[in-house]
Amino acid sequence: MRRAIVALRTVSFYLVISAVAFGMILPFLWMISTSLKEHEAVMILPIRWIPERVSFQSYRDIFSISTMVPFHRAALNSLLVSIMATFVTLASTSMAAFAFAKLDFRNRDRLFLVFLATMMVPGAVTMIPNYLVLRSLRLLNTFTGLVLPSIYNAWALFLLRQNIKAIPEAYFEAVLVDGGTAFTMYRHIVLPLAKPILATLGVLTFMGTWNDYLWPLIVLSDPSKMTLTLALNNLNARWGEHWEMLMAGNLVSMVPIIIVYLAAQKYFETGITVGGLKA
Amino acid sequence: MYAGRGGRRALTIAVFLLPTIVGFVLFSLTPILRSLYLSFTSWDILQPAEWVGTENYRQLLTSDEFWRVMGNTAEYIVLYIPLMLVSSLAVASLLNRRFRGVLVYKVLFFLPVLTSWVAGSLIWRWILNYKYGIVNALLGFVGIKGPAWLDDRLWAMPGIVLASVWKDVGFFGLIFLGAIKGINTDYYEAAAIDGATPWQRFRHITLPLVSPTTFFVLVTSIINSFQVFAQVMIMTDAGPAGATQVIIERIYRYAFQFYKMGYASALSWILFAMIFIVTYVQWQFQKRWVTYDA
Known about the structure:
A: mainly alpha; flat; B: MetI-like fold
């Protein structure tokens, strides 16, 4: 009797959680179903979950229609930009974080506090002047301009400083005894020991850049430079009723980030548990 | 103390700080000051900026549009926050036990978080289609005639809220899950001995003990809610008839489509002020409901 109750509980638990999870992925299933239909078959009532005839025409279209950015081009752009932004963020903030955590200089903590205070200012405030800075540097419509603001990231700086602070002093003293410099410490102690948090920050920056919309929308105007989100945006503006193409484009834009997630799942989870991650 | 001495020391520190300091000056400090200055000017980016004092702020605060935008944002927050809190707590409670396949379920709940706002919004524009969308098809299945959603002034914002909750629930759900896992199991065992029902345990143990996380989630998500953008651009293009115009969308249009840089900057400072005030007020009220010692 007891065993029956336990089994019943387990079954009902699975039923509930599966129903909720199914609801969550239902939009994705509908996306896949739509992307595999012919254009004429998309708007048919009653709706059909399984396409009558499976067609990959929509996928061919988004890679080849000449009046818009081909999706492989946009995907390459996104990849390049995301790698650049990740590298720039990690390099710049890890260096400064090391200085703030382990080197002594005048007004160090006061300066750090100023940096922290800038986290309160919403991106919308700095967005217009940042655009103007890129304009005067003649960096509008370039990838360099798009990722350049990543050299300053107060939130990443804070996260890294906390972690580098926790590295025992003995390591650094050992480098000193061996006649090493601060650069030796950065290269041989900070970078290896901060690897997990750097990886966490890396995947989050990568995902953030990959999915970013507003900043590229402002900076990039040349169609051949567009990232995936902009390509989707364009597709939506020009072919808004071609749902099979929109959904195919969506799926293509999601696949790489899902792969990154599956490969680095534990870093995503640490990223969330360290808290305060920017959604 | 590890940087050496004298000139060499200064040089070492300068090298480590250089990229961040340059970035700070170029992309944070100067922009903040410049934006504040611009908010007191009228500037179309071509002609020189003209000082107009508080005119932009006066115009903004007396325009119908501004108050409509505030109303829309308030509607978003009022609908989104409770829905998001309840569903992410529910997701966290579901995932907070050992069972076969927990990792698979975690991935499924996390998929919308990985999706870009653009892609997520496109999917929802399609499934909320009044005629061919699956939401109305499902509603029709249980005998409800679904509204025109994104084409209806009354239902467009609730539609955007649905998409946003779907997109965020996995993220905040995992944050809550971390908090629930951190609760000492002794409390639950003691409550079970006293014969507390699962709901009583949730209500009197889980809820108070995750309240610091709830506070964090509340603060973060309200700040984010003030800055809704992609959903609106993709799903409704701020329509119908301005029913889903929101702050960032207005700033974007004023700055980069109408080239009213001063006006847009003033709006961005009003946004900053509002976020600051709302966050400050939440901070003041947290003592009343957040339990920090357990």
